[in-house]
């Protein structure tokens, strides 16, 4: 009798917070469907192996637009359309970085130009390297010590943070600002230590920014091993660097985000689930962000397959140009505002396809607490962390419009080993982890649709 009473009280409590035994059963159905019949893993293989990396403005990205349109139709979307967006066109081209020590011999270093960086126009640019270990150290250098030099910012990715995104955020300012800071004091180009949690020699690319009225000099990244070796050399001798690169901006072009939806049965209010379709021009863009794209499509497919009658419109958005401009996210927000569309909620998956551990909630306390009250439903699926207060880059324009936003939080320990590198390939993705992420997103969208 005591057990029966306790169970009854449990479900009364659940019902008071908008959840029930029926929800638990539906969670199980969603999980069973996705883990057994999910298409996300095979879709990801198709995207990564048959198209590969897909930088905005490239022919590969345009192929991925057609791919996403087809996959959304196959998943059962009622409507599929392309949203026009102007995107920057940046190309890498041939590039090389060499160093010379007192022995007089040139040695090639593994490197990648940072995204959006200008190059050397195919000419050699050389100079003596000076090293700094922090922004504060650089700020203290007089301009005459930097002029005509190459500045090497050797700031390591902090291993102290358990949440690796905190380590990434801490180091990211060096990638973003190194070129502009170097140019202000007359340096020729900047080298940064890659934003990597790994102790290897894989260089990581990623976006950097120039400042108005400041010379647009090149910026490149080297791997952790090379960075350590270069620092050791600089302690004992003069080192000269020589860069030759052909990267640079080539204007803008018309491209598209890809959108598909299941129309709401009750009203046309929109719940967005999405990821970004573009990637950097190295690797295959598997974890960043092919996984987010296929997980989002899986949400739609599962609603259709299980015959879940959604009250509100469930909309999948495959955003263009997150990596080097966020033009797709900005355009989506602008269009939603112009059309006076009511958005109830938006979630993005853009933190890798590893095992889901939580959902970060960027919204007011009332809505946060409502979602957190559902935590017991998610716990059997390994999802327990609802403490984050951030959300995806592509949906920040919606957040600025007052829409509650969120982001899937996978286990992050391996993500920054491969982020923005040639190592971000399909083989690094585990099928079950990927599909469990899709499961958590589908379960959340089911609860939002039912209760908001």
């Amino acid at each position: 009798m005591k057990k029966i009473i306790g169970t009854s009280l449990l479900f009364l409590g659940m019902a008071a917070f908008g959840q029930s035994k029926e929800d638990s059963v539906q969670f199980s159905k969603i999980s069973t469907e996705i883990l057994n019949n999910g298409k996300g893993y095979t879709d990801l293989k198709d995207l990564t192996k048959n198209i590969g990396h897909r930088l905005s403005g490239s022919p590969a990205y345009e192929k991925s637009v057609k791919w996403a349109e087809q996959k959304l139709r196959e998943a059962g979307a009622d409507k599929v359309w392309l949203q026009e967006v102007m995107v920057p066109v940046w190309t890498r081209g041939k590039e090389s970085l060499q160093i010379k020590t007192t022995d007089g011999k040139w040695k090639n270093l593994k490197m990648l130009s940072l995204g959006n960086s200008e190059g050397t126009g195919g000419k050699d640019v050389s100079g003596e390297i000076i090293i700094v270990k922090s922004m504060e150290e650089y700020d203290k250098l007089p301009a005459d010590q930097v002029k005509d030099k190459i500045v090497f910012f050797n700031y390591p990715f902090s291993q102290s943070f358990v949440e690796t995104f905190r380590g990434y955020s801490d180091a990211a300012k060096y990638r973003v600002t190194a070129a502009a800071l170097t140019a202000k004091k007359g340096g020729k180009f900047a080298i940064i230590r890659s934003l990597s949690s790994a102790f290897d020699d894989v260089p990581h690319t990623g976006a950097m920014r120039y400042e108005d009225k400041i010379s647009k000099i090149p910026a490149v990244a080297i791997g952790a091993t090379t960075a350590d070796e270069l620092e050791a050399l600089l302690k004992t001798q003069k080192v000269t660097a020589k860069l030759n690169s052909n990267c640079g901006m080539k204007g803008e072009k018309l491209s598209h985000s890809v959108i598909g939806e299941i129309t709401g049965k009750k009203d046309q209010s929109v719940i967005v689930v999405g990821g970004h379709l573009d990637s950097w021009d190295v690797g295959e863009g598997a974890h960043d962000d092919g996984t987010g794209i296929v997980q989002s499509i899986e949400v739609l497919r599962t609603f259709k397959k299980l015959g879940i009658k959604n009250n509100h419109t469930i909309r999948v958005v495959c955003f263009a140009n997150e990596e080097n401009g966020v033009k797709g996210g900005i355009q989506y927000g602008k269009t939603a505002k112009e059309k006076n569309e009511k958005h109830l909620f938006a979630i993005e998956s853009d933190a890798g396809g590893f095992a889901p551990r939580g959902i970060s909630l960027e919204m007011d306390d009332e809505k946060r607490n409502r979602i957190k009250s559902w935590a017991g439903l998610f716990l059997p699926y390994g999802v327990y962390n609802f403490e984050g207060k951030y959300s995806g880059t592509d949906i920040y324009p919606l957040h600025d419009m007052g829409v509650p936003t969120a982001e899937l939080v996978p286990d992050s320990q391996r993500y920054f080993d491969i982020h923005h590198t040639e190592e971000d390939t399909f083989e690094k993705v585990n099928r079950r982890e990927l599909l469990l992420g899709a499961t958590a997103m589908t379960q959340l969208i089911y609860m939002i649709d039912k209760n908001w």
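The chain is about 40% helix and 20% strand. Residues 164-184 form the longest helix (21 residues).
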